[in-house]
């Protein structure tokens, strides 16, 4: 900082409003992160659909050909 900047900073006055809201920053309102939730890679519905698909494929394979 040069001398002019230092001089300007010393001349600045703090202005406090007489009415209205006053905003201030404090460390009390820090964000708190939750623990990560472990989710299954496949949903129950997808697992059921895959099981049904396997059953259908097995039924098709087991069916004798009528040609």
TrEMBL record:
One GO term (biological process): receptor localization to non-motile cilium
Record InterPro entries: BBIP10 (IPR028233)
Taxonomy, superkingdom: Eukaryota
GO CC annotation terms, alphabetical: BBSome
Pfam families attached to this UniProt entry: BBIP10
Annotated protein name in UniProt: Uncharacterized protein
């Amino acid at each position: 900082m040069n001398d002019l900047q230092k001089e300007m900073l010393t001349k600045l006055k703090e202005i406090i409003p007489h009415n209205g809201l006053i905003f201030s920053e404090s460390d009390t309102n820090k964000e708190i992160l939750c623990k990560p939730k472990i989710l299954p890679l496949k949903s129950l519905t997808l697992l059921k659909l895959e099981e049904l698909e396997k059953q259908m494929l097995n039924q098709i394979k087991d069916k004798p050909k009528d040609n």
